[in-house]
Amino acid sequence: VMSAGAGIGGSHGTWQVGGSLVLGSVAPHDAGDYTCVANNSAGEARYSAHLLVTTPLAVQLTPRNMQVDAGGRLELRCQVTGHPIDNIVWYKDAKQLRAGGRIRIRPREVLHIEMVESSDAGIYQCTAQSQHDFAHDHTLVSLGAASPQLLYRFIEQTLQPGPAVSLKCIATGTPT
């Protein structure tokens, strides 16, 4: 039996009668292609198989529950451990995020949002998936300071002296 072109045996693998190789405690470094070779004076026979060693996926999203000012920059990091990692996907308020415009995902574990807007506040989630496992974590992003925006402005009026007048102006911003 060979793994990645080298013979196996010794202290890590043990042979059993009938040609079986038993690996006592499989670890990620045992992953690879294994080939059984039988030969005699009449020829040779070979069979190869791939051993995939999986470890549970875990996701940690940082920072936790952060506040970012409007116009600022948001950066979230998704640390994924485990093997294999087939896919990492970002979500905001349960909708998948895609890179483009103000949103960059580079590498797939880091989310950048430039020129933060009020609509960027919400729950962000990072998910990691393999054929055998799934893990996720989330964080809350709230909006800090935001410059005032006038939602409603009073209109010009021409009046004769005497009557009362009311002028209305509505604005948003943080803090209020």
UniProtKB/TrEMBL annotation:
<dbReference type="GO" id="GO:0007156">
    <property type="term" value="P:homophilic cell adhesion via plasma membrane adhesion molecules"/>
</dbReference>
<dbReference type="Pfam" id="PF07679">
    <property type="entry name" value="I-set"/>
</dbReference>
<dbReference type="GO" id="GO:0050808">
    <property type="term" value="P:synapse organization"/>
</dbReference>
<keyword id="KW-0393">Immunoglobulin domain</keyword>
<keyword id="KW-1015">Disulfide bond</keyword>
<dbReference type="InterPro" id="IPR003598">
    <property type="entry name" value="Ig_sub2"/>
</dbReference>
<dbReference type="InterPro" id="IPR013783">
    <property type="entry name" value="Ig-like_fold"/>
</dbReference>
<protein>
    <recommendedName>
        <fullName>Ig-like domain-containing protein</fullName>
    </recommendedName>
</protein>
<dbReference type="GO" id="GO:0030424">
    <property type="term" value="C:axon"/>
</dbReference>
<dbReference type="GO" id="GO:0008046">
    <property type="term" value="F:axon guidance receptor activity"/>
</dbReference>
<keyword id="KW-0732">Signal</keyword>
<dbReference type="GO" id="GO:0005886">
    <property type="term" value="C:plasma membrane"/>
</dbReference>
<dbReference type="InterPro" id="IPR050958">
    <property type="entry name" value="Cell_Adh-Cytoskel_Orgn"/>
</dbReference>
<feature type="domain" description="Ig-like">
    <location>
        <begin position="56"/>
        <end position="142"/>
    </location>
</feature>
<dbReference type="InterPro" id="IPR003599">
    <property type="entry name" value="Ig_sub"/>
</dbReference>
<dbReference type="InterPro" id="IPR036179">
    <property type="entry name" value="Ig-like_dom_sf"/>
</dbReference>
<dbReference type="GO" id="GO:0043025">
    <property type="term" value="C:neuronal cell body"/>
</dbReference>
<dbReference type="InterPro" id="IPR013098">
    <property type="entry name" value="Ig_I-set"/>
</dbReference>
<dbReference type="InterPro" id="IPR007110">
    <property type="entry name" value="Ig-like_dom"/>
</dbReference>
